[in-house]
Amino acid sequence: MQFTRRLREPIMRGEITCSVRIWQSPRVKTGGRYKLGAGAIEVTSIREIGLGQITADLARRSGFAGVVDLLKTAKHGDGEKVYLVEFEYHPNT
Length: 93
Prior knowledge:
By secondary structure, the chain is α+β, with helices and mostly antiparallel strands. Helices cover 24% and strands 33% of the residues. It has 3 helices and 4 strands.
């Protein structure tokens, strides 16, 4: 799972614990570990949500200023399904 550079440090500090992604199908799985910095994130849950469920609060929890800011980054390729990925950061994994 890749993150924009500006989100990496806040994720490693535990300030960001979720991400909204727009994919054709899930690209991660619950329990999966994905390298980030000296450690890794572990996906604790992934679920499909509706576009209307992306609120300003969810955008801020994901490290973005608002919904529009989040949507500019969340879409990957020609995906149309919206996923909420929750995770924990584990240093030195």
